[in-house]
Amino acid sequence: MSTLFKKTDHEIELFREDAACMSEHSWSDEKHIIKDNSEEIERLWLDDRLKIVHSTFRKEYDSHVKKGKYFYGCPHELYLETFNKRLSSHLSKHKDYTLITFIESEFKDGVFLFNRSYVSYEKMQKIQASLRKRFEFLVERAQEEKYNIILLENDNVQIKKIVKKNLIDDDDLIEDISGEFTLKERVIALHNLGVLKYLYNNAEINSVNQVAKAVRSFTGFNYRSIQPLINPIFNKEVDQSNSAINNIKQVENVQKHLDNYVFIKKK
Predict the structure, then answer these.
(1) 253, 208 in Cβ contact below 8 A?
(2) Which DSSP letter does residue 170 get?
(3) Measured distance CA(87)–CA(141) in Å, rounded
(4) What is the rounded radius of gyration, in angstroms, for the C-alpha atoms of the chain?
(5) Residue 242 DSSP SS3
(6) Which pLDDT does position 254 carry in this prediction?
(7) Which of these, 57, 102, 153, 217, could form a disulfide with 8 (CB 3.0-4.6 Å)?
(8) Secondary structure (H, E, C), 187-235
(9) Distance CA 155, CA 197 (A)
(10) What is residue 2's predicted lDDT score, i.e. its pLDDT?
(11) What's the whole-model pTM score?
(12) In angstroms, rounded to a whole number, what is the distance separating the alpha carbons of residues 64 and 16?
């Protein structure tokens, strides 16, 4: 960090020296001791002097970002751009290294705290927002490997293997492709019956991926086959061509079958 922000560190030292020097003397104006507003003058001087430190840090920070250089606290977009390359470099260093060991090494620099002195409040807010996105991204990657990341005190984390399996593994599934209805038609039925909406609105399910896995657990279909069909239903900004409900006629036919089934059952 000190190498990355060498100029900023230098300005911080100069600021501390100036502040220490000023504190040794009374705050005065034209050699007359100011008694009434000396604290206000001191505050204005400190604020004005800190602007140099803030400006230097901002320039160094933006310069590293422009060069595409990763560093702890960089914008999340840059973090994602450099992630795979840095992961590959980590894996090449030892045959036993994995994605999880890489994630562990990522958190050694910190989780949410950006320990830089005299960073402006506005800049610190942006950096912490990027660090929060980084944390959420690493949590998701760890969960894909069946690990949980638990946030501890003092800006530390604990990474633990998920022992309890709430859903069936894809390797344990034998997809049922028998019967007259395709997977798409079955997903349409779940949508028409309100099952997908119910799952999506469940407090413990916070993504389309988890909805697909929930559907997988009681249908026997691979969630990777289900997710492309339901993702456009809940995300209108993505391509709708793969949506299970993009064919109105097919949706209506499934609904007719559901209506007929209910009518027959009532009889």
Answers:
(1) no
(2) G
(3) 12
(4) 29
(5) coil
(6) 86
(7) 57
(8) HHHHHHCCHHHHHHCCCCCCCHHHHHHHHHHHHCCCHHHHHHHHHHHHC
(9) 37
(10) 52
(11) 0.51
(12) 25
* Spatial distance between the Cα atoms of 134 and 139, rounded to a whole number of angstroms: 9
Q: Which amino acid is at 95?
A: K
User: Alpha-carbon distance 104 to 157, whole Å?
Assistant: 9
Query: Which amino acid is present at 211?
Result: V
Would you state the pLDDT for residue 77?
95
**Which pair of structure tokens corresponds to residue 89?**
């470099």
The amino acid that residue 222 corresponds to is: N
Helix and strand numbers (H, E) in the chain are 10, 4
Residue 38, CA distances (Å) to 24, 30, 32, 122 in order: 14, 13, 11, 28
Q: Give the tens place of pLDDT for each residue, 153-172.
A: 788 899 998 875 444 455 54
Q: What is the dihedral of CA 123, 129, 133, 139, to 10 degrees?
A: 110
d(CA 9, CA 3): 9
Tokens representing 263?
């009518």
**Distance between the two ends of the chain, CA-based, in angstroms?**
75
- Could you read off the pLDDT of 228-260 as tens digits, one per residue? 888 888 888 888 888 888 888 888 888 888 888
Instruction: For the chain, list residues with pLDDT below 70.
Output: 1-2, 18, 21-43, 45, 116-118, 164-180, 261-267
Q: Any residues with CB less than 8 A from the CB of 159 and at least 6 apart, and which? A: 100, 103, 104, 142, 147, 148, 149, 150
Measured CA to CA, the distance from residue 255 to residue 183 in angstroms comes to 15
**Per the structure block, which two tokens stand in for 164?**
């309890």
Report the SS3 class of residue 103.
helix
